[in-house]
Amino acid sequence: MKIAQAIFATIALGSLSFGAISAELLSKEDFKQHQDQYVKVGSITTSGETSPSDAKEELSKKADALGGQFYVVTSADTDNKIHGTADVYNKK
Prior knowledge:
This protein is of the alpha+beta class. It contains three helices and four strands; from the N terminus they run αβαβαββ.
């Protein structure tokens, strides 16, 4: 699990961009500091991705489909392929 957290932390600090309208990945720490500013709109999952960037892109697309502005990764597993879950939020 620590490896998966490190992978997603690295992604969060990376400079990948998927466009101005794509949902933004929030770190758990950033979310906790300002959680009163967000309202949850759903949860998403991804599975079978082959790279961390693919998993991030898939989660972002699914958050967009829910109409979310932000998503917070809640779990990740790297058993052969990357599987992840995230909660999706909008600002209040």
